[in-house]
Design a protein that fits this description.
Layout lengths: L3 E6 L6 H5 L11 E4 L4 E8 L2 E9 L4 E7 L3 H6 L1 H5 L13 H5 L1 H6 L8 H10 L5 H15 L15 H5 L3 H6 L4 H21 L4 H14 L5 H11 L13 H10 L6 H8 L6 H10 L12
Antiparallel strand pairs: 1-5, 2-3, 3-4, 4-5
Length: 300
């Protein structure tokens, strides 16, 4: 099957890899590849029409070239601009804090994107609950290798696990992958919500989609405010999502705005309030600048 090839026009500043980098689950993610200097990004995913692999690269300042492989290509093509983030509007506020003002070009060029599969991203975030990023990414790599399905096309990527794969995972098998009981159970619950979550994400009006997805995530056992915020922000492109309960983020926000080593959720929310409805956009900028790592994990 020949790939679908498209040239996507882009208005305003746009950095392809910066916008899509967090769609890859760490540098060893077998479902994605990134080439920063060449501004290339590739991702394998599952769609309602079947598996797909997407390759995107910059072609001059005003366009992105795309090749989409596999039976899921028409599904991705219909949502391509949201997946690339090219229609994400730039924030309208004028930053008054001098450090944020320095990063206005990045704030405008790093667009918020929609995950090809929100159910996949939900599982990826659950894997990061209460453990280090490296531990979570290692478990994900093991699961992708266990499934062992190559994505269509020439990109040599593995397909991510389906919700059915997570649902069929027995507890001893989960332990072998490095998953504790809490995350294994949360993945089981998430698998049951996957179809409804994908349908909600596909609602035609962005505000309704965010509301419906947020409501479903709130009802899913094992998915708390931290997981919900990251799924909405990084998976659905919600510019105003908040991420309470993170071990590092309040300290990163305090360090960014005030050069203080410690912060709190309450202080972080106060600091971000003036940027509503772009609070997550500011958080994502701070995340892109690098964050401290420790042996402690994130929230739920």
């Amino acid at each position: 099957m020949e790939p679908i090839r498209r040239r996507v026009e882009v208005e305003g500043p746009y950095r392809l890899v910066a916008s899509l980098r967090l769609s890859r689950f760490g540098p060893g993610d077998p479902t994605a590849s990134v080439d920063g200097p060449l501004e290339r990004f590739a991702k394998a995913a599952r769609t309602p029409l079947g598996p797909v692999a997407l390759a995107a690269w910059r072609d001059g300042p005003g366009a992105v070239e795309v090749a989409i492989y596999g039976p899921g290509a028409p599904w991705v093509e219909a949502r391509l601009r949201a997946i690339l983030g090219v229609d994400d509007p730039a924030p309208t506020f004028t930053p008054t804090h001098p450090r944020l003002a320095l990063h206005v070009p990045s704030l405008h060029a790093m667009r918020l994107v929609r995950a090809v599969s929100l159910a996949e991203w939900h599982a990826v975030v659950i894997l990061q609950q209460r453990v280090t990023f490296a531990e979570a990414a290692a478990s994900y790599r093991r699961m992708c290798t266990r499934v062992g399905e190559l994505a269509p096309g020439p990109l040599r990527l593995l397909l991510p696990p389906t919700p059915a794969h997570w649902a069929a995972l027995h507890h001893p098998e989960a332990r072998a992958l490095g998953l504790d009981t809490g995350r294994w159970e949360a993945l089981q619950h998430a698998a049951r919500f996957a179809r409804s979550l994908e349908a909600a994400a596909d609602l035609p009006e962005a505000g309704l989609a965010r509301e419906a997805v947020g409501e479903l995530l709130s009802r899913c056992p094992g998915t708390g405010p931290w997981t919900r915020g990251l799924v909405l922000g990084l998976g659905l492109g919600d510019a105003d999502a908040v991420v309470p309960g993170d071990v590092h983020l309040p300290h990163d926000v305090a360090a960014f705005f005030h050069d203080r080593p410690h912060g709190s959720d309450e202080a972080m929310l106060r600091e971000l309030e003036p940027f509503r409805p772009h609070r997550f956009r500011v958080v994502r900028l701070i995340l892109s600048l690098g964050r401290r790592r420790s042996s402690e994990g994130a929230g739920r």
